[in-house]
């Protein structure tokens, strides 16, 4: 899962800021075929029908100027379904199901995108990606200086800082979900409300959710 944070320094960040103060979901990349299903001519229109009433709840806004007049839907979403869903053997319903799966299982931090801000000597996180493939190290894309901290701005006005030596341990998908996603979309974390208090206390990830 790939996300962009709202900011004014890049095209995608500026477009994201038009829709959200917290984050924009931009892509669920699927590399391998999921089934032998053959695509249908009606798939893309069917996907548009499915995603139209849900895209705002998913913060899945099209970061393209072509969709700005239509409130961020649905040209880009249809293209992403064709590439990552239809061509990989997924029906419109199955791909949307995967896009809506915000459980932390098999979602490790793969990369962060940054820009360096010389006025404060800090790296600003502008995007990040989570996935199943883990190479043993986090890719840091964009201009950055590893000796300085990484700032994570968000719409709640709290500036959180990560250090390069522990960023992969703290900036987990679970942390991102509870501290960023659910601030704007509380229903995502309400899906976890059935967990018992005891299980939450025994889960090390749950104990880290609001450390920062």
Principal-axes geometry comes out as globular
Number of beta-strand segments: 7
- How is the main sheet built? 7 strands, mixed
- The low-confidence parts are 204-212
Q: Structural class, from helix and strand content?
A: alpha/beta
Radius of gyration: 18 Å
Mean pLDDT: 87
Helix content: 25-40%
Helix-strand string: EHEHHHEEEEEHHHHH
In words, what does this structure look like?
With 212 residues, this protein is an alpha/beta fold. The chain contains 9 helices and 7 strands, in the order E-H-E-H-H-H-E-E-E-E-E-H-H-H-H-H. The protein has helices at residues 11-19, 43-51, 75-84, 92-99, 167-170, 173-184, 187-190, 197-202, 204-208; strands spanning 2-4, 24-27, 108-117, 122-131, 139-141, 150-152, 160-162. Strands 1, 2, 3, 4, 5, 6 and 7 form a 7-stranded mixed β-sheet that branches. A hairpin with a 7-residue loop joins strand 6 (150-152) and strand 7. Helix 2 crosses helix 3 (75-84). The radius of gyration is 18 Å and the shape is globular. The chain starts with a strand and ends with a helix. The relative contact order is 0.15. Mean pLDDT is 87; it is low at 204-212.
Question: How is this fold's topology laid out?
Answer:
Blueprint: E1 2-4, H1 11-19, E2 24-27, H2 43-51, H3 75-84, H4 92-99, E3 108-117, E4 122-131, E5 139-141, E6 150-152, E7 160-162, H5 167-170, H6 173-184, H7 187-190, H8 197-202, H9 204-208
Helix pairs in contact: 2-3
In a nutshell, what does this entry contain?
The protein has 212 residues and is α/β, with parallel strands linked by helices. The chain has nine helices and seven strands, in the order E-H-E-H-H-H-E-E-E-E-E-H-H-H-H-H.
């Amino acid at each position: 899962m790939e996300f962009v944070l709202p900011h004014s320094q890049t095209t995608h960040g500026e477009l994201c800021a038009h829709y959200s103060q917290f984050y924009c979901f931009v892509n669920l990349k699927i590399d391998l075929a999921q089934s032998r299903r053959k695509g249908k001519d009606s798939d893309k229109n069917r996907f548009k029908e499915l995603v139209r009433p849900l895209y705002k709840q998913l913060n899945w806004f099209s970061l393209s100027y072509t969709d700005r007049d239509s409130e961020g839907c649905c040209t880009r979403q249809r293209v992403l379904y064709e590439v990552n869903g239809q061509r990989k053997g997924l029906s419109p319903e199955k791909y949307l199901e995967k896009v809506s799966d915000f459980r932390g299982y098999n979602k490790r931090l793969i990369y962060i995108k940054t820009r360096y801000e010389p006025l404060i000597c800090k790296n600003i996180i502008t995007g990040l990606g989570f996935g199943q493939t883990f190479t043993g190290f986090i890719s840091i894309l964009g201009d950055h200086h590893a000796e300085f901290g990484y700032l994570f701005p968000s719409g709640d006005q709290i500036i959180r800082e990560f250090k390069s030596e522990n960023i992969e341990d703290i900036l987990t998908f679970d942390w991102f979900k509870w501290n960023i996603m659910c601030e704007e979309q509380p229903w995502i974390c309400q899906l976890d409300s059935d967990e018992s208090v005891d299980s939450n206390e025994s889960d090390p990830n749950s104990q880290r959710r609001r450390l920062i």
